[in-house]
């Protein structure tokens, strides 16, 4: 009898530990583009529009027409079906829960993610701090992106050429940390 109670007790304890371990912390970058875009869109709606599925869908289509082409937000609009060129139509998975007052995080991470997992793969690119990073440790792709973002020519063959060019022109585009410290004094 004592063995059976010990056995049941150990099973209950192991189940509790497995339940605690299965609860994952929410990754803030998971669905970050979706959450930011839908939140911004939802803030543009008035209370009357928020209660109508049809009005939400039409307003989101208009919102998506104004979004910059080739941006992460534009890609989200494409995935949800808000663009004329969209291959799928998942606006109902956005408009219905939004009209019911479901939080945007839940709409993106659960409803839209089930429809199209690519929606949550969209992430914003983090800017590279040129003063705080060792350029030799960056990939050529990142070095090339820095130069093209600055509007500089980026058609070199060697990684050392990219690094040399960044060091030559970085004073035009990046304020040094010593300049900002002098202004604070």
TrEMBL record:
Pfam short name (any one): ARMET_C
Principal subcellular localization: secreted
ARMET C-terminal domain: residues covered: 133-173
SUPFAM superfamilies for the chain: SAP domain
Domain of life: Eukaryota
InterPro entries: ARMET-like, ARMET_C, ARMET_N, SAP_dom_sf
Location of the ARMET N-terminal domain: 31-128
Location(s), subcellular: Secreted
Alphabetical UniProt keywords: Disulfide bond, Secreted, Signal
GO biological process: dopaminergic neuron differentiation; neuron projection development
Residues spanning the signal sequence: 1-22
Family: Belongs to the ARMET family.
Protein name as it appears in the record: Mesencephalic astrocyte-derived neurotrophic factor homolog
Organism: Adineta steineri
